[in-house]
Design a protein that fits this description.
16% strand; alpha/beta; 5-stranded parallel beta sheet; binds adenosine monophosphate; 8 strands; 3-stranded antiparallel beta sheet; 9 helices
Length: 206
């Protein structure tokens, strides 16, 4: 099964994508995580990506498409792929059509006010990427690995509002693009309920 997870920043896409990819034993391909890894390794691509990410802007399509093409060469991609945060533009969706067949597209729906609240309290583990909320998590240590929690530099209110605008302008049109394959999900549901809903919806394609 190849699936896409669409949703505005802060819709819980990354957390849910990881769980669902594990459940169906498919590769979790997050372009955001891949770019953050490049930034951490201080590569040329990382430096380029950072200049866009810090502003809440999109990294150019050609850079992302090349990165995805390379990623899909890896052995684990043959089990099936969950694309998280890709495609984000119609140009990326057209490029993806040339290299993979998408079975189903999960669209996580979430209101901007919920998003701003979620993102401004979001903490991420620097080792395993686990996501927490400062409202419910005490301290700066990860619960599942020896990592430390940090606030993503693009998780401030101003950048979040910009990322939401960019989402509405560039990425929301993909809901129409994938309309024949879309499963809409209320991303404000409790996390377990939401995971069960998505698993049930995707079973037909696994
Ligand atoms: P995410 O972790 O998915 O929220 O992505 C963080 C940031 O990385 C985004 O705000 C963009 O700047 C960049 N990014 C991630 N995926 C893409 C993509 N498919 N196209 C363009 N930029 C991307």
């Amino acid at each position: 099964m190849n699936t896409i997870f669409l949703g505005p920043p802060g819709s819980g896409k990354g957390t849910m994508a990881e769980r669902i990819a594990k459940f169906f034993n498919i590769a979790h391909v997050s372009t955001g995580d891949m770019l953050r890894e490049e930034i951490k390794k201080e590569t040329k691509l990382g430096a380029l990506a950072k200049s866009y990410i810090d502003k809440g802007a999109l990294v150019p399509d050609s850079v992302i498409i090349d990165m995805i093409k390379e990623r899909l060469q890896k052995a684990d991609a043959s089990k099936g792929v969950l694309f998280d945060g890709f495609p984000r533009t119609v140009a990326q969706a057209l490029a993806l059509d040339e290299i993979a067949k998408i079975d189903v597209c999960v669209n996580l729906e979430c209101d901007i006010n919920v998003i701003v609240k979620r993102i401004s309290t979001r903490l991420v583990c620097d080792k395993c990427g686990a996501v927490y909320s400062s409202l419910t998590h005490e301290g700066t240590k990860c619960d599942v690995c020896p990592g430390n929690l940090y606030t993503r530099p693009d998780d401030n209110e101003e950048t979040v509002r910009e990322r939401f605008k960019v989402y509405e302008l560039n990425t929301a049109p993909l809901i129409d693009y994938y309309s024949a394959k879309i499963v809409n999900v209320d991303a404000t549901m409790p996390i377990e309920e939401e995971a069960t809903f998505i698993k049930e919806a995707l079973k037909a394609y696994a």
